[in-house]
Amino acid sequence: MISSLRGAVLSVGLDHVVVDVGGVGFAVQATPSTLATLRRGEETTLATALVVREDSLTLFGFTDPDSRELFGLLQTVSGIGPRLALATLAVLDPDKLRAALAEGNITVLTQVPGIGRKGAERLIIELRDKVGETTATRGTAGQVRTQVAEALLGLGFPAKQAEPTVDAVLAEDATLGTSEVLRRALAVLGRKR
Prior knowledge:
With 193 residues, this protein is α+β, with helices and mostly antiparallel strands. It has three domains: 4-62, CATH 2.40.50.140; 66-127, 5' to 3' exonuclease, C-terminal subdomain (DNA polymerase, domain 1, Orthogonal Bundle), CATH 1.10.150; 135-192, Ubiquitin-associated (UBA) domain (Helicase, Ruva Protein, domain 3), CATH 1.10.8.10. The protein contains nine helices and five strands, in the order βββαββαααααααα. A five-stranded mixed beta barrel has the order 1-2-3-5-4. A hairpin with a 2-residue loop joins strand 2 (16-21) and strand 3. The longest helix has 15 residues, at 140-154. One of its GO terms (cellular component) is cytoplasm.
């Protein structure tokens, strides 16, 4: 798989860019916001995803790996192909998309041309748990959240109680370690029983 390209920008079109890598010009489909950052003759690096079909090999380019990850994740949903996934990222930036999926916000998702109410509901159902973390809880806090939530599930707490409790504890202080978050979450859950 081609996961990134680095080279000089040969040309920028309405929906693609051509990047010269070692004398070979790669046509890369991209969102308007990505294309707006590129200038002819300048060096660029793009995170890419290669989509293989019977009749084509298509490269899709992104300014960051997070967008590429969401692009792949969107395609796991029935009825969402690479074009619709790219359109989704063209309308919604990664943070806004994650928030809409986590909150179940159908109105935001239906802003994307090609996604109706049923498609938005399907996206929410299939991806809510996969992108539920917000920008503030990604990285170390995201790892702590996952570990503590799994520990609470292992102790017999239902996910509907465990995950919001962990999120509430991390919202108070995102710098806490796993053991402290677990201790505080258990104290909160103990009061609810």
